[in-house]
Every structure is written in structure tokens, then in C-alpha cells.
Amino acid sequence: MRRVFRLVGFLAVNLFFLVLAMLAAPIALLFGRINHRKLVTFLTKVWANLNTFVLGIKVNLVNGDLIEQGQNYFIIGNHLSYLDIILVGCKRPGLFVGKKEVRSWPLLGQLAWLGGTIFVDRSQRGPTATKPYIGQIAKYLKQGLTILIFPEGTSSNGEGVLPFKKGIFSSPILAEIPILPITIRYTSVNGKPFGPDNCDLVTWHSDMTFVDHFWGVLNLKGFEVDIIINPPLSEKLIDEKTVLEQAKKLAERTHDIIERTYLKTEV
After folding, report:
1. 177 Cβ partners below 8 Å, 6+ apart?
2. Please, is 227 exposed, middle or buried when counting C-beta atoms within 10 Å of its C-beta (0-12, 13-18, 19+)?
3. Among candidate residues 218, 217, 118, 130, the one with its CA nearest the CA of residue 167
4. How many domains, in total, are found in the chain?
5. What is the DSSP letter of 164?
6. Is 69 left (phi over 0), alpha (psi -120 to 50) or beta?
7. d(Cα 62, Cα 183) in Å, to the nearest integer?
8. What is the CA radius of gyration of the chain?
9. pLDDT tens readout for residues 168-223
10. Which DSSP helix (H) or strand (E) runs through 147?
11. Which residues constitute the domain of residue 110?
12. Which of 45, 86, 46 has the alpha carbon at shortest distance from 227?
């Protein structure tokens, strides 16, 4: 019965915001695309909080005082599940960067598109730093928008943090906007500590299907997650010709910080 109630609640919340976004977009665009995207960011937080409530998720913000009020960031997080957008969005919303395949997902894909998600085509060839989405993201950052990305490229099984795709780190360097590394760490599932015995109940990886996994999530009594804020990183642009080399080093630094807090060697 819990599963049915949560499914109905989840569908109700997301269909409501889908309709709201469709109706509000034309009006908001009259005030300019920047204001439209800022409205989307605000609505994302409301949407995410309602979904965490419906799904029985408790999200704790750790080290929130490290976030400077009024500052926009290029947020980098580890990736454990399709739920990560909701978990981060309820505490630090922004425009998301996702693979283009997400655009075709039922309901969630439509919400992502209306919510201003930047869809990345990984099949594009050529130097990473010259790909269109690199400049697009840098432009949004310069306009004062916060961008969120999970640079592992795919969700992990919860045992650690996968290597980061490095080229995307060119965007905050070109925009000279600080990176905010965040660590998503599950702490408990059904009242028991998160670990090898229950990690697959909430992490989504390998050949798991979305429908089967989400059907299981709906039946959980609840689970708890920490969103750990790590100290921001700033990187000044040295030369556009060597920005990719800067991006590689910045990606490695960011990965090490997130991995340390994820593995509980640093908080």
C-alpha cells in the first residue's frame, strides 16, 4: 500500500509541475531568458522538496555555511542514482547538465527540458574545449546562474567515486566562476546503516532497469542522505589555448576532495 500511495503522490507532484512549467514558461520568457532560468531554479527547489517528502527521504545539509550567499557556482557532485537531482535540488538548486538520452525519458525527461536542463551530446567529435556546450555553460555561469553536473558520466554502485570526465571543467575556468564540490553520501536505508547489504536498494548502476529499481524505492520505509558541502575552488583562466590542461588538473583536485569526504576520510 505504501508503494501505491507514493507512486500516486510522485505522479501528482511531477504532473503538476510539468503543467505549471508549460504554462509559466511563455509568461516568464517575456521577462527575458535569464529571469526565466532563475524562476526555474526557484521552482526546482520546491519540486525537489515535495518529491523527497513523498518518497520518504531525509536530506541533511552538512557544512552549509561554506556557501557564500549571492554567489553562483559550478556545482560538482558524485553520482549514485537518478535521485541525485532531487537530493541536491532540494538544498542547492541550479540548472542541470545531463546526457541527451535523458530528454526522451517519460515525464522526467519533459520536466528536465522545461526545467532548463542542458543536454550534452557525448558523441560530438573534436577538441572538448571547443564543443558548443562548453561555451554555453560558461555563458550561463557568467550570467549569474548556478550549474550542476555529475562528471562521472554514469552512476556508481556506491563503493567509491568513479573518474571524472575532465573537459567540462573548462566551463568554470572560462567563466572564472568558483566550483562547489559536493558529496552525496547515503547514511541509512530502512533505518539501517548504508552498506554493501542495502546499497543496491538506493543506488542505480550497471544493468539495473529504471522501472524495477524505482518500484523498489517506492516500497522503502525511508532513507537518509547527507549532502556535504566542500570548500569552493577557484581557478583563473591563464590562456584559452591551454584551458583543457587546466581543466584536467582541476577535475583531479575536485575528484580527490569529493572522494575523501565520500569515503569518510575527510568531513
Report:
1. 72, 73, 74, 141, 142
2. buried
3. 130
4. 1
5. P
6. beta
7. 9
8. 18
9. 999 999 999 999 999 999 999 999 999 999 999 999 998 899 999 999 999 999 99
10. strand 147-149
11. 2-262
12. 86
Identify whether the C-beta of residue 216 lies closer than 8 Å to the C-beta of residue 201: yes
Helix (H) or strand (E) holding 258: helix 243-262
pTM of the model: 0.89
Closest CA to 183 of 86, 95, 256, 251: 256
Alpha-carbon gap, residue 233 to 250, rounded angstroms: 9
Residue 267 belongs to a domain: no
**DSSP per residue over 3-56, as a string?**
HHHHHHHHHHHHHHHHHHHHHHHHHHHTT-HHHHHHHHHHHHHHHHHHHHHHHT
Q: Which three cell numbers stand for residue 121?
A: 551530446
Residues 189/56, Cβ–Cβ less than 8 Å: no
In a domain? residue 191: yes
Q: How far is CA 70 from CA 37, 47, 164, 193, in A?
A: 16, 21, 28, 36
Residue with cell 558520466: 153
- Is 50 inside any structural domain? yes
66 domain residue, yes or no: yes
Return the pLDDT at 115: 67
Q: In this structure, what C-alpha cell is assigned to residue 258?
A: 569529493
Q: Which three cell numbers stand for residue 244?
A: 583543457
